[in-house]
Amino acid sequence: MSSNLLSVEGLTKEFNGFCAVDNVNLKVEKGSIHALIGPNGAGKSTLFNLLTKFLDPSSGKIIFNGQDITREQPSQIAKRGIIRSFQISAVFPNMTVLENVRIALQRKLGTSYHLWKSVSTLNTLNKEAMDILDSVGLAEFSDTITVNLSYGRKRALEIATTLAVNPVLMLLDEPTQGMGHEDIDRVKELIKRVSAGRTILMVEHNMSLVASLADTITVLQRGSILAEGSYSEVAKDPQVIEAYMGNAHVEVLGEH
């Protein structure tokens, strides 16, 4: 039985002759935190879009849990448990924190499209929603209108709504983008907490976060894999230092 939850084989995406993802081979091990890094334009977001089928590949295969999912639709991908967060927080700003999580849980009741049912039918989800909020450190904010949360806590809420749909593979797209140090530390601890028993693939620019969380790092450049390995291995790779991290980051790399 393979230890890989996700395998990408020769994945390629071309746009009018421009190759955004170029023959990528990637394996994500079950139960691991796997980070994708690289400069802007390296192909990270395009790769995420291919995995969630927002884009169709020009060639190559995507294997998930031993099944070829290359030609499946986004709804089928989501049902398999591949759930993605986005760079911009995607929560309902004028609802409470609890209501946001209840909506994510609602499909379990089979009432997702029953628009005229009483909101009281969702009360059966309150305990489960509160348990999820507790797991991400937001239980005390359950009655807070989401727009009033700090940016870091909004991202924590987005992770909570992701957890509510019971992901097998969580795709986190720059979870700390635009955050200050305090919020970054909070989200780092949150990712550590929710990774137990789950597999996470994340795109992230914050190298300190990547160093402290990732079991494996894949470095992309111009749509191709430049290097792969542990943080210590990648940090010492001369091509990576030159192409992505730059001389200004060498001292930081040496600290981990």
Can you walk me through this structure?
About 35% of the residues lie in helices and about 25% in strands. It is an alpha/beta fold. The protein has two domains: about 1-80 and about 165-250, Rossmann fold; about 90-165, no CATH class. Pfam families: ABC_tran, BCA_ABC_TP_C.
Care to give the gist of this entry?
By secondary structure, the chain is α/β, with parallel strands linked by helices. The chain has helices at 44-51, 74-79, 97-105, 126-135, 151-164, 181-194, 207-213, 231-235, 238-245, 250-253, and strands at residues 4-15, 18-29, 33-37, 59-64, 67-68, 82-84, 169-173, 199-203, 216-221, 224-229. Helix 3 (97-105) runs parallel beside helix 5 and helix 5 (151-164) runs parallel beside helix 6.
- Spatial arrangement of strands, main beta sheet: 6-7-8-3-9-10
Low-confidence stretches: 112-116, 247-256
CATH homologous superfamily classification of the largest domain: P-loop containing nucleotide triphosphate hydrolases
Largest sheet: 6 strands, mixed
Strand content: 15-25%
Rg (CA only): 19 Å
Helix content: 25-40%
Structural class, by secondary structure, is alpha/beta
Q: N-to-C SSE series?
A: EEEHEEHEHHHEHEHEEHHH
**Intertermini distance:** 34 Å
Question: What count of structural domains?
Answer: 2
CATH fold call of the largest domain: Rossmann fold
Q: Which CATH class of the largest domain?
A: Alpha Beta
Number of strands: 10
Q: Overall 3D geometry? A: globular
pLDDT averaged residue by residue: 86
Named CATH architecture of the largest domain: 3-Layer(aba) Sandwich
The number of helical elements comes to: 10
